[in-house]
UniProtKB/TrEMBL annotation:
Pfam families: Beach (PF02138), GRAM (PF02893), PH_FAN (PF25400), WD40 (PF00400). Keywords: Repeat, WD repeat. The gene is nsmaf. This is Neutral sphingomyelinase (N-SMase) activation associated factor. Residues 514-530 have a biased composition (Polar residues). Residues 216-501 form the BEACH domain. WD repeats lie at residues 605-635, 654-695, 696-737, 777-812.
Amino acid sequence: MASLKTQERTKERFSLLLLDLEEYYFEQHIAYNVTSSSKKERKRGSFKVCSRSIIFDPEDLTEPIIKVSFSVCFYLCYLHRASCLEKLGDQTAMIEANLQSRLARSSFDKNCFQNVAEKPHMECEVEMVTPLVSNPGHVCITDENLYFQPLNGYPKHVIQIKLNRVRRIYKRRHCLRPLGLEVFCTENDFCSDIYLKFYNTADRDEIYYYIATFLENHMTEHTAESYMLQWQRGHLSNYQYLLHLNNLADRSCNDLSQYPIFPWVLADYTSAQLDMTNAATFRDLSKPVGALNKERLDRLLARYRGMPEPRFMYGSHYSSPGYVLFYLVRVAPEHMLCLQNGRYDHADRMFNSIGETWKNCLEGATDFKELIPEFYGNDFSFLENKMSLDLGRRQNGSLVCDVVLPPWASDASDFLQRHRTALESQYVSEHLHEWIDLVFGFKQRGSEAVAAHNVFHPLTYEGGIDCDSIEDPDERIAMLTQILEFGQTPTQLFCTPHPQRITPRFHNITRSSSINSPVSELSPVSQSEDSSFEDLTDESRKLAWANMSNLTRVSSHKIHKDYNRALSSCLMLADGKTVACSSWDNNVYVHYFYSVPYGRRQDTLMGHDDAVSEMCWFDDRLYTASWDSTVKVWQCASDGSSSHKRSQCQLLAELEHDTGVNTAGLSPAGTLLVSGCKDGAITIWDTSSYETLQQVHCHAGTIHHAAFSPDSRHILSVGADFCMKVIDVQTGMVISTVKAEEEQRCFCWDGNSALCGGQSGDLLLWDLLSSTVTKRIPAHSGAVTAMWMNDLCSTVITGGEDRQMIFWNLQS
């Protein structure tokens, strides 16, 4: 862990870890420790003035550091400056007043600017947060740099971060209050460059939004839903996704009470070989650690039922400073000593063996801890005692040294590699959403948490107590101490079930998924199916979308008379020769069928009480959406072989809605229908039973268009609110929202990219994973209102308010 491991180890032994909770180091002076009248007994060193104590650090490294609390020290005279500390009255209030007074009397030293031409934007008092430590000072932000200057000049006179190097910034909840800001100059590292705690939220927010303007993607603030879409579609690994969720949930490696949480994913630490094709090798991710052992859970539930309110099932948390340092003691011994008053834990309670630790998490009466990111990283130093620390001797006589690894790991590096492979395995990919529901999602709180046996002490939850309402300073610090030492539950990111990841279509796991989709179309394809042709088609589609920016106009046709209204929908029928169009005509509600070579009208179908907004077609069934609040299902069959013969259409069903239906679309297999209404609601229907599967109110206004992804996992919708929404079909969750600069009226998409028709008349090629427009193609002189794409994604037809139909092809 970089923030703990790489702190400079200099000859000076003083560390901020010597201070108590909410104690601050102010200044230092050269001094002598005089133990007698003899000059030989005068020991030179550094005298530190802190808010709760004084510390003498001798130059002679064989001499101990002396710390004296103000509670037993009334005054002291020291060399070069005489100071008399009177007897303390209200010590805590005095400390806070002293700190604020020192901060107010000082300001950022602008001589520290790297460039004389730098323009300061803002300066305020803050504290820099590192594990178990807060260091007060001033932050100053300019048009080039972010600076932090510690009040005490420790460990550096000034810390500088170039704003053009910043890649990510996060608002943080610190000590249960929205005062933190964390800045990263890397994309994927979970250790930040600086963590600042402000004294008011307004200052924090102003600096946050100022830094955001320097980020390349500052227009798009990443959300849990946007990362979810990338993870679902395989663009983020399980490891990367969990890091992002931890970041969004206020977990930071600078705050040990909110350290990033990762799950135990394996249950086998005894076999000589690790069999990842056997589901029994893996931990049940649908249950918290405390519920994995039924006998222990029964005892905990019996106690829970007899407990007065507020009740909790587990007396300890799955993440706390003690648990983090339990794992990291070999690389951060000074932090463990700070937390445990200068002593290591008993040797038999140390992190001795991975297998023993897992067993204790299953069987221990009070041990329910999860893992930390280091177990899935590349640095194995936390598993080895490279500093030769004296960590004690166990009852069996053995010394505590390196961590004992499972038999299936040849060394620490091999263990991490196999552990990471397990995290990215098919089984974990199929079940990780269940663990996310427990830690970050809808099973974290309330009745769902009770049903999932996932209830912890009330003090661990955000909003469980308002520390600012505690007037007595000492009582408030005592409460904060209890909360910070006990651990905190992450900020809740999801309030509905988390969607499952989209995994490959092969099955080699012997235990079936616990998620049973209500939609048969979402089930994986059988391995025995010959999919060579399908794979070839998929590759052709991928190639087409990779070259979609090369879309070229082939021809255009004016298809309505000047007095008629614009097209609402167009599509090509199965014969490959006929284009069907519907119009907004408000006198006659029609579908015009055009023969592409001849351009004649073949049939007119009247069947709604208001404008027909969109059509979709599968096999012999035609679905027509209308502003009369219905989608009608027709069975259409030709009465002759000629394409010029009249079709016969019979009404099969009417799907009722609350408001006018503006769009409708079918899944590739035709088993699902999506409809979008004027009130901003999306409805998903089963086309065999015509029953509603999901209804999601996701737009603030009319939905212009909605369509399934090729794998039927997601629906993309665009609306009058300028938003593009991605919805998970299985759960109904909105997993991505993109705010565009103009209304997107229609589109075709492949699950990752979308070709949209804009209000301006242009075609816009969107990368939905990065929420950016990668290409703008001039097309119509009015809004693009309809779009169709062939199965190989190589031909596109668009219709617009300019009454033009334009044919497009991909050019190599």
